[in-house]
Amino acid sequence: MCERRLFVNGEWVETRQRLEVRNKYGGEVLGTVPVCDPELLEQALEGARKAFPQLCGLPAHRRAGILDRVARGIEERAEEFARTLAAEAGKALKFARAEVERATSTFRLGAEEARRLGGEVVPLDAVPSGEGCFGFWQRRPVGPVAAITPFNFPLNLVAHKLAPALAAGCPVLLKPASTTPLSALLLAELLAESGLPPGALQVLVGEGRTLGGALASDPRVAKVSFTGSREVGLALTRQVGIKKLTLELGNTSPVVLAEDADLELAARRCALGAFSNSGQVCISVQRIYVPHSRKDRFLEAFREATRAMVVGDPLDERVDVGPMIDLSEALRLEEWVEEACGAGALLAEGGRREGAVFWPTVLVDPGPQTKVVCREVFGPLASVIGVEDFEEGLERANAGDFGLQASVFTRDLQRAFAAIKALDFGGVIVNESPAWRADHMPYGGNRQSGLGREGVRYAIEDMTNLQMVVMRTS
C-alpha cells in the first residue's frame, strides 16, 4: 500500500482528507491520496497563473527536452506503471503494458511538436491595401489548461493532455479520475524531476462535480480539456464561459460489414475492439450491422472469438478481460442486458457477472430503442444486428446522437469510399475495429461525441492562439 501526495507548485502536499484507491479485482486498498480542498485549489490556480510566463518563455528545445526526459522515465519504469494501471483500473496486464508504450510515444510526439511549432508568412500584397506590408502569424500559448481525465486510460489520456499543453507552453491543472489517480501521481514524479518550472504542473484529486467545475469556471484557466461522459460535458459547456473547450464524450461505435467482407478478420478485430479493457473505451465496438445473408456465419466466428477471451485477475498474464471499474457499472450493464432480452434480443454469449467482473457478452438483434443500441454501453457487450444490405447498415450506423468513430469491412474500394462519404463520424476506419487509434492522428467526434480534436499536433492547435503580425516596410 502506498500513500501519495498531491503535486502543487513544485511541492508534494497533504490535506486534511484522504480517499482510498482500491484494487478493482481483489478490492484491497492499494493506496490513499489527499483530497484537494478550496485553499489548495486557490494555491494551484494562482501558481499556474504565475508559472505561465516562465513556461512559455522557455526555448522550444528546453520544453522538448523536458518531454523527452519524461518519455525516457516512463520507459525505465514501464513495468511499475503497467502494474499500477492493472491494479487501479482493472486493465489486463497485456493492455496495461500497451498503454504504457503509447504514453511513452505520446510524450515523444509532444517533444517533436514543441521543436517544430511555427507559423506562416501571409502575402499581404495580395490585396491593394497590403502593398508595402510584410505579415506573418505565429502560435502563442493560451495560458493555464484544466485537464480533466477519465478512469479508462489513466496514463495515456493524461499524456494526451499534458504533452501538447507543455509543448505549447501552457501550465496544466490536472484532475485525474478519483478511482484511478495513482498512475497520474506516479507520472507527476517524473515531471517533478524533468526541469519544469514550479507551478507548470498541478495534480489535484477530488470529486468531479466540485473540483472539475471549479477549475472549469475559474477565469485564470484559459482552456478546459475534458474526456468523459456526455452529461458532464454538457454541464461543463455551461460553466466554462468564454474560453477554449475540448470535449471527448463517447460513442455507440458501429461496425458495418459489406457482403464481401472478410468475416474471420472482422470477427477477430471486433472481439478485440469490443472486449479489451472490459469494453470501457469510448470507441469500443458496440453495434455490428451484418447483411442477413452473412449474419449466421459472422455470428459463429464472432462467438468463437468471444469465447477465446480469458476472464479474470488483470495481473494474470493470460487474462484479456478484467473487472469493470466498479460494481455499480457491472450491475448497470446486467440491467441493460435484461432489458434488451426482455424486448426480444437473443443472448448468444456471456451475460454472466461475478461482482464487478462481467463476461464478454454478445446479443443478437436488440431493438433500436434499447439502451444497448442507443446509449453508450461502456462495458464488454456487443450486438450483432441483421440488415438487408451494406447501405442499410450505413444508414443504421448513422442513427443516433453520437459520431466519434465507425468502421466498415469490405474488399471493395468503391464501397469503402461510399461509406466514408456517408458516415458522419470524426473517424472512419476501414477493415479494422473502430477502437483503432494512433496517438498522432486527429481524434475526436462529431455531433454529441464532443468538440475539437486530440492527437498531439491537433491538441496544440487548440491550446494556442494565432497571433497576426503586420509590419509596414515601405
Secondary-structure map with pairings?
Elements: E1 2-3, E2 6-8, E3 11-13, E4 18-22, E5 29-34, H1 38-56, H2 60-76, H3 78-89, H4 93-116, E6 119-122, E7 133-141, E8 145-148, H5 156-168, E9 172-175, H6 182-192, E10 201-203, H7 208-217, E11 223-227, H8 230-239, E12 244-248, E13 254-257, H9 263-275, E14 287-291, H10 292-307, H11 327-342, E15 346-349, E16 353-354, E17 357-358, E18 361-364, H12 371-374, E19 381-387, H13 390-398, E20 402-403, E21 405-409, H14 413-422, E22 427-430, E23 446-447, E24 450-451, H15 456-462, E25 464-472
Parallel strand pairs: 1-5, 8-9, 8-11, 9-10, 11-12, 13-14, 13-21, 14-19, 18-19, 21-22
Antiparallel strand pairs: 2-3, 4-5, 6-7, 7-25, 12-24, 15-18, 16-17, 20-23
Helix pairs in contact: 2-4, 2-5, 3-4, 4-5, 5-15, 7-8, 9-10
Structural summary, described in words:
The chain is α/β, with parallel strands linked by helices. It folds into two domains: 272 residues, Aldehyde Dehydrogenase, Chain A, domain 1 (3-Layer(aba) Sandwich); 186 residues, 3-Layer(aba) Sandwich (Aldehyde Dehydrogenase, Chain A, domain 2), CATH 3.40.309.10. The protein has 15 helices and 25 strands. The N and C termini lie far apart (70 Å).
